[in-house]
Design goal:
Shape: globular
Number of domains: 1
Number of helices: 4
Order of helices and strands: EEEEEHHEEHEH
CATH architecture: Beta Barrel
Number of strands: 8
Largest sheet: 5 strands, mixed, barrel
Oligomer: single chain
Strand order of the largest sheet: 2-3-4-7-6
CATH topology: OB fold (Dihydrolipoamide Acetyltransferase, E2P)
Length: about 160
């Protein structure tokens, strides 16, 4: 079981979130402070694992087709499912903006050993950095992890 804590929350709760479901590579359903929430990892972006408007936009921007984007998204989701399971507990850290336009909590998520899930996904080649101010605290960390994955041809960059 993996434990992730959320900083900036009451000391009583220790900022724990229990994973319910992995929606895709960068979005999860959790129980946080007694209620079901969706969390979105800050500073990273995995390909879409379903055909939708964003997958179509990403396909256009990358000169790929939607099916290829979705295939990559499914690979990213499978990677996350290999390191994070339902019932795992995470420590969450917030940045300046706590929620996105869809109401999801925006977080940096940590394993019990202190490793940041966001960085692990990028460093293993399953996400790209994606920074939206004001949540830029670890932008340089994600950029370095991305460069490492590309140089080592890891994950989605292995082809």
């Amino acid at each position: 079981m993996v434990t992730i804590f959320v900083s900036g929350c009451s000391p009583k709760s220790r900022n724990l979130a229990t994973v319910i479901r992995i929606v895709d590579g960068d979005t999860y359903s959790v129980i946080f402070e007694g209620k079901k929430e969706k969390i979105r990892l800050i500073g990273i972006d995995t390909p879409e694992s379903r055909s939708n408007k964003k997958a179509k936009k990403d396909a256009d921007l990358s000169n790929n087709n939607v099916e290829d984007i979705v295939k990559l998204g499914k690979l990213a989701t499978e990677f996350v499912k290999s390191i994070l399971k339902p019932k795992d507990t995470l420590r969450l850290e917030f940045d300046l903006r706590e929620r996105d336009q869809y109401g999801r909590l925006l977080v940096y998520a940590y394993f019990a050993n202190g490793e940041m899930l966001n960085e692990v996904i990028v460093k293993n080649g399953y996400a790209s950095p994606l920074t939206y101010p004001p949540n830029v605290k670890y932008a340089k960390v994600f950029s370095a992890a991305f460069q490492y994955a590309r140089e080592k041809k890891l994950g989605l960059w292995s082809k």
